[in-house]
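pinging the channel bc i need a second pair of eyes. not urgent but kinda urgent?? the chain im working w is below, pasted from the shared doc
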Amino acid sequence: MNQDYIKPDEWSIIEEEFDAGRVKSSESLFSIGNGAMGQRANFEEQYSGPSFLGSYIGGVYYPDKTKVGWWKNGYPEYFAKVLNAPNWIGINVFVNEEALDLNTCEKVTNFRRELNMKEGFLARSFEATLPNGTEVEVKAVRFLSIVDDELGAIKFEVTPLNLDATVRFDPYLDGSITNTDANWEERFWETLEVKSENDRGFLVSKTLKTEFHVGTYMQSEVFLNSKKEDVSPEVKTDEDRLSFSYSVKTNQGETASIIKYAGYVTDMNHQKADLISASARVLDKALSKGFDQLKKEQKEAWAAIWEMADITISGDVKAQQGIRFNIFQLNQTYLGKDKRLNIGPKGFTGEKYGGSTYWDTEAYCIPFYMATKDQEVARKLLTYRHHHLEKAKENADKLGFANGAALYPMVTMNGEESHNEWEITFEEIHRNGAMVFAIYNYVRYTGDFSYIPEKGLEVMIAIARFWYQRANFSKDKNKYVILGVTGPNEYENNVHNNWYTNYIAKWCIEYCLQMIDKVKDGYKDDYQRVMGLTSLNEGELSKWKEVAEEMYFPYSEEYGVYLQQDGFLDKEIVPVAELDKKQRPINQKWSWDRILRSCYIKQADVLQGFYFFEDHFSKEELEKHFDFYEPLTVHESSLSPCVHSIQAALLGRMEQAYEFYVRTSRLDLDDYNKEVEQGCHITSMAGTWMSIVEGFGGMRVEEDQLSFKPQIPEQWKAYSFKVNFRDRILKVDVSAGKTEFSLEGENSIEILVNGKKLEVLPNTRVSA
């Protein structure tokens, strides 16, 4: 744990007392989003202290040219940047011509910031003494509407406390923004038009290279003691910026306030020439409803999300706060409305990593969206990859693969690889396996096999072709091997025969062969279409089968475990517990050379395979591998604690499972990895959900049925969650010694509880 200033609360993230040293961390933690756009919790008013400004629009990116001192064939030409978009939240505030700036105030008291997760808004309040001696009370509320995802709204109030004052609000739009992580310090935006009409302001911009066109807009209303003021603004414009200025004479104790409606429209949804008119239509709707009605709609929309997605925990406020923070951020990032969008590792909270899509979506996020929303949301995530299949083939072609082999990118915006670290781009090829596992997992959970003949089989064939070509026969081992890879443990690069990579390659080929036969038998038209597209023949299938059957897996007879890769035991095996805590995290303390020569594991690697393919191994085998690898794991990846929590629970080690759960659920809130100011770890938050549902709840799909083996940490009195399984919503309530199930809808469901069959009837509760 690196920080402990977030106040425990079941429904809110709360910060009290202003501390300039944690401003950037709070900007990440208190971020807001609505699936289409997002905003770090930057102050509306000017702030001259260190800050990380960030406004982001889903799907809008820039291909920043790769910056390296050398070049290799096949190297990605650019690193796709999630772009910091034009600033829509800005409201500079002056009191008797003194700027309100928390970095220069003489005194700041009663500071409170709250991210209300139940209703979906960010609130802030404080009292401050300005350099000119004026004392003010400030309250601000803002949200991004999930009802109208092109709209944001802000209410900002100023009350002079010790004298009469003129309060001036200067709401503005600013297109002169830059990215913190720009490789070449380039500008990514060009402002095309700055326009004002009465109280409305418009700024039309386009991204360079990709030429996304974005309209940023605003309109404001000014009030004195809640009564609207008829104030004509002073307008200022330059080539990148537009500001209005409203002055309100305010007596001591009176409240001057401004409501600002603002946001983005893009050419992904509107014609380029219509961005200003589209913005005006959003403003018309916002003004007709007003701030209070919009906020009420926001509350209702979030209530509908929580009705299905909430997990309740009794007796452990920090654990409750942690899971709700994770669920909230996942829904702020992706709601499944737009099939062109995906789930970036930082969501709308920061710029690190770039890209909108990693293998995290397939490995961790799809289970959450399958169970907490309609299955069509998960299907859209699969379709996203099918849409990028031709690009994946191009990626493989650049590396020398042929015959329609596909390598899905490690990082992408449009299907093209845009990650610029060679040990990841060229070698972390296990990501290809996650694409197929996600299809398998979707069909297993939803029962919707139709996706495979319609789209999935084409993806699986292209990936099987990649694995067949990527393996080569070793005369020495008399087996097929896969050389020069990086497994999920990124603290090992350019290794041979990473067990997880070899295992998922073998499984992908075998699963594809099974699905080809199934489609051939039951979906003849689709089979003929896919065979025609791929020119697949029996000779090629026979070669695939040979590679899968003769795949090599490194194994230690001494320890009785599969080895992470060839030569793993050549390392000095020293458990993490014996490391000096001052050396942690090693990725910030050690040289890369030292990390690569160590035995330390960043995240689940062999155990990732045991998680995906749990039914392939006995519980005794899992225990042996867990006991060997977990003590060597530093968990410096956000994706690591959740897998270990699930497996610890399966092994009945509930205290250890609970510790891992707390770490994954509060990874950002407590800043375990000392990096939260760069943004939150959004995709791993789905793993937090899995830690409870699959870990403590023991939920699996067995024999085409839902199965549960519920347990409860001793720190909790009870917990509950809902899952949508094949259009039937099942609620699970677990307490010490008792588990109850209830079912919504009209059709009953038969489930397994600790291996025994249990029928749950609609609108009834049954105990197990």
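so The chain is about 30% helix and 25% strand. and The two ends are 38 Å apart (CA to CA). — does that match what u expected or am i reading it wrong
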